[in-house]
Design a protein that fits this description.
This protein is of the alpha/beta class and 177 residues long. 33% of the residues lie in helices and 31% in strands. The protein is globular.
Length: 177
């Protein structure tokens, strides 16, 4: 939900829609959403979730972000939360740029750090460090996040957001006018 304030316009593409939580939240706000995911099981789960929420017109597509099956210059925002490394691929970024309107934005939530103080929060922070899900912030910002988006021709802004017991890093990459 932390990415919603950064979404602009009404035609939204979610890359890696997973089980459909963000799809439902965006639809609840009256936005026209399309979701793309490589996983057939995730598509099934997302469709069930959307139908249970009362949505009939479900626009979910199975595919890869490196070859988006969408019209050029159509979406106002493309969003992806906790994507794998495909989001940094120059082919993915070129496809996203192609599908975005001029001035449109790519909003990515690539990582979160658990910063809570309760025992359970400290345990999860340790698990995320051990599994590599909470990398060094400086390394992520300078080496992994900014450069690929800039190299793909986007104007890049990085935001750090604190929510509950986590610190989120959000990348906002805007297609120039």
């Amino acid at each position: 939900m932390a990415v919603i304030p950064f979404i602009e316009g009404t035609r939204i593409l979610e890359l890696g829609h997973g089980p459909g939580h963000l799809q439902r939240a965006l639809r609840d706000r009256g936005l026209a959403t399309v979701g793309l995911d490589e996983s057939a099981p995730m598509m099934t789960i997302a469709k069930m979730r959307l139908r249970k929420s009362g949505y009939d017109n479900i626009n979910l597509t199975r595919g890869l972000s490196q070859d988006l099956p969408f019209t050029s210059n159509y979406f106002t925002t493309v969003v992806s939360t906790f994507p794998s490394d495909y989001i940094f691929s120059q082919r993915t970024l070129a496809e996203v740029r192609r599908c975005l309107l001029n001035g449109g934005r790519l909003v990515v939530l690539p990582v979160a750090w658990h910063i809570g103080q309760r025992i359970i929060e400290q345990f999860f922070a340790w698990v995320f460090r051990v599994t590599g899900e909470s990398p060094n912030l400086e390394e992520v910002i300078f080496e992994k996040l900014g450069a690929p988006f800039k190299n793909a021709g986007f104007q890049v802004e990085l935001k750090k957001i604190e929510v509950k017991s986590s610190l989120l890093l959000i990348v906002i990459a805007t297609k120039p006018l």
